[in-house]
């Protein structure tokens, strides 16, 4: 019994980072002043045939216009970035807007992921792209969205 419990805890510790990111999106998806969009990778291949060679599992988008949620989403986002060991690729700051593109390397059990954050004093947008792609493919995808 003790051994099963230890194995269960080890398994949970192993999968918790992937769950943390999904939980972030799930936590805010149905809040007032939040728009949530989930796009399956298959629909991208159908709608954008020139992107069919890219391995995209899904895209999740959160658009938060509720000023009361902005502080909590920022805190949760920073914790998620830290927990999941995202690496910052690009950061731009232009007057009152901050844009970051972060990447989480793929592991043996999950594909790589990109997290794009656009934050201003009035709203925040998060775009989470799960799939394996090169920088050029990511740029092409973002232009087509």
Description:
It is a single chain. Helix content is 43%, strand content 34%. The protein is α+β, with helices and mostly antiparallel strands. A six-stranded antiparallel sheet has the order 1-2-6-5-4-3. Strand 4 and strand 5 form a beta hairpin. Helix 1 (2-29) runs antiparallel to helix 3. The model is unreliable at 1-20 (pLDDT under 50).
Topology overview:
Elements: H1 2-29, E1 34-40, H2 41-47, E2 55-64, H3 67-83, E3 87-94, E4 97-104, E5 113-120, E6 124-132, H4 135-144
Antiparallel strand pairs: 1-2, 2-6, 3-4, 4-5, 5-6
Please give the order of strands in the largest beta sheet: 1-2-6-5-4-3
| Total of DSSP H or I helical runs spanning 4+ residues | 4
- Give the overall shape: globular
Question: What Rg do the Cα atoms give?
Answer: 17 Å
Gap between N and C termini, in Å? 51 Å
Into which percentage range does the β-strand content fall?
25-35%
Classify the secondary structure makeup into a structural class. alpha+beta
Total strand segments? 6
Major sheet attributes: 6 strands, antiparallel
Low-confidence stretches: 1-20
In N-to-C order, the SSE pattern is: HEHEHEEEEH
Mean pLDDT: 77
Helix content: 40-55%
Core attributes:
alpha+beta, 6-stranded antiparallel sheet, 6 strands, disordered N terminus
In a nutshell, what does this entry contain?
This protein is an alpha+beta fold and 145 residues long. The protein has four helices and six strands, in the order H-E-H-E-H-E-E-E-E-H. A hairpin with an 8-residue loop joins strand 4 and strand 5.
